[in-house]
Amino acid sequence: MSQQNEPTDELNEATLLAQRVSTGASTAAAELENYLATIEQSEGEIHAFNTVLADEARTRAADIDQRIAAGESVGPLAGVPVAVKDNLCTTGVDTTCSSKMLEGWKPPYDAAVVESLTAAGAILVGKTNLDEFAMGSSTENSAFGPTRNPADVTRVPGGSSGGSAAAVAANFAPLSLGSDTGGSIRQPASLCGVVGVKPTYGAVSRYGLIAFASSLDQIGPFAHSVTDAALLYDVIAGHDQRDSTSIPTGIPTVSDGLDAGVEGLRVGVVKELSGTTEGFEPEVARQTQAAADALAEAGAKVDEVSIPTVMAGLSAYYILAPAEASSNLARYDGVRYGLRQPGANTAAMMRASRTAGFGSEVKRRIMLGTYALSAGYYDAFYGRAQKVRTLIIEDFERAYQDFDVLLTPTSPCVAFPFDAKTDPLTMYLNDVCTIPSNLAGHPAMSVPFGTGADGLPVGVQVMAPMLGEQTMFRVGAALENAAQTITNGGA
After folding, report:
1. Residues ≥6 apart with Cβ < 8 Å to 151
2. In what helix (H) or strand (E) does residue 435 lie, and over which residues does it extend?
3. What are the start-end ranges of the H helices in 298-423?
4. pLDDT, tens digit, for every residue of 293-340?
């Protein structure tokens, strides 16, 4: 049986806003003021942004309205306010990575995804807060202070894209962009109760994304609904010759297939990440099972699948990612751009600049990565982690021979209080479900599905094989429908 994708209008705010503006039923300026008023009212408490671009956004909205009045088509995101993570370059606008190292730095160019937003008629409303250089799972590591979860301001929003998730959850913007290296879109999406998508590695250009770990980083959307996330994904996906890792073949669009239902699709519930293992909150496990049951009721063929190597993903990731970070962050030396501290000579200046510019988590990962790459330890750590990565990819390939998509919790827990996880290893465990998709380069998305402890949001993760976004979004839409039906009492 086919289940149609009919999310409530309230969820599809970006799609409907673009329709209103492009048809003249409303104006970009009027729509923008509603969001700016919400930002003005609540940003002081939430701190989703490092920079709010109110004046620039108003100028952009006026231009869009003039073009529409002249009969022009301004694109699929006509007049839609969008927030972007503060590790995406924006011409003449501070791009800090939430680090003292880049405080005040204004790039001379736009990231490819920012160019795509402009071409599609979107309005950039601000740059969002993040864990410094995207290293964290709570947005507590920002040099400019933490972001708070709109669902409960005593809790973290997740990370590292916590500001982008919070901006959508707090209705500061209907859409936002984040980056995902080990779960940094999906985990905060889960904790804040919004949709978050990590595309296939290479499906979205990384040109203008300030690198953390180049073989893992990927840019993706946040939205209130799967429909809106699909709209934004279709705008930013595609080949870019400026990114050597960009997939040269055509990237399939996803918006048109959302109403296809899931009848006959094969869904595998990953045994090792089902939520029944140690470290997962019972309510998270319960909602994941409820999501699997809902897909089965909608006509999917649901069964359990074992992928043993996923449990080694966390260990492999925390060798590979810091190793790449230690190399990527070597450019911040106080010489070419960024913070420069005085020193008696060049070496002393570099040491002083990096000591003052980087926070503790960034320093920790640089040291871990440098150690893993050092002579005598390369094969024992980095080389072995790469072999584990290969095994994970092979295990996923075998699983996708029998299943179209895989299902897991997104996060082992709901949003946790500030300062609750001060031990780095405890914090790193938040990424146990999300990291495998980054290591494999596969797409994955988090869809809100009910609540857990203290009534806080729970996200369910849908994973798919490379370039499997069309099917992944279909399943996400079915989960969204089921969640709404449950919320509305089965009506």
Report:
1. 169, 191, 192, 193, 415, 456, 457
2. helix 435-440
3. 313-328, 346-357, 360-373, 384-402
4. 999 999 999 999 999 999 999 999 999 999 999 999 999 999 988 999
Distance CA 480, CA 463 (A): 15
Domains in the chain: ranges and CATH: 13-311+388-487 (3.90.1300.10)
Structure confidence at residue 491 (pLDDT)? 43
Q: Which residues contact 248 (CB under 8 A, 6 or more apart)?
A: 239
Q: Is 315 annotated in the active site?
A: no
Is residue 184 annotated as part of the catalytic site, yes or no?
yes
Two tokens, residue 27: 């104006």
Residue 447 belongs to what H/E stretch?
strand 444-451
- 160, 179, 190, 446: the catalytic one is 160
Tell me, yes or no, if 160 is annotated catalytic: yes
Catalytic residue among 99, 137, 161, 184: 184
Q: Which amino acid is at 209?
A: L
Q: What is the pLDDT of residues 92-126, one digit of tens each?
A: 999 999 999 999 999 999 999 999 999 999 999 99
- pLDDT of residue 77 exceeding 50, the answer is yes
Question: What pTM was estimated for this model as a whole?
Answer: 0.96
**pLDDT at site 9:** 65
Q: Which of these is catalytic: 85, 127, 198, 421? A: 85
Q: Poorest-confidence range of 10-14, 257-261, 426-430, 486-490?
A: 486-490
